[in-house]
Design goal:
Largest sheet: 2 strands, antiparallel
Structural class: mainly alpha
Strand content: 5-15%
Radius of gyration: 23 Å
Length: 181
Amino acid sequence: MLGLLLLLAFTVLPLVELALLLRVGERLGAGPTLGLVLATGLLGAALARWQGAAAWRAIQVELAQGRLPGRQIVEGLLVFAAALLLVTPGVLTDAAGFLLLVPPARRIAAAGLVAWGRSRVQVVGEAGGLPPPGFGPGGSPPPPGFGPGGFPPPGFGRGPTGFEPGPTRDIEAQVRDAEQS
């Protein structure tokens, strides 16, 4: 499956892009077509920088509030992908790149990407470390030394010799092949 995707990405897509650019060149002329390619590249780079900065700020806000910025990281990666698509000459790549820079479209793409990733990973076991989910308010009490909500106290896991690993949660996972799904 991966081989087919690589074949499409590096042979078929460039040929389709070339054919489309030649069509546009026939209608507009060589100069305007080159100008269009340069303009979309420059505009795309500027938009990607602006959207990338917004994604970075969202990541910082999530971290400052003590939450893991999973969705924001995926969206930031999609902004990076959009920038790569926009600096690649072509009509289809420009359309895909501009689409990924539109926040609602990017959120939909991020949700689809996360769902695809989750469908490919299967947790098959868990060992040691932190207590099971559900401890803290409404569940079992937090372990000794942990604060309200089951969160470790500030500085937890650090000792006089530097960082000493604290409790961890190990999982065993398998990545399912696309043909098995």
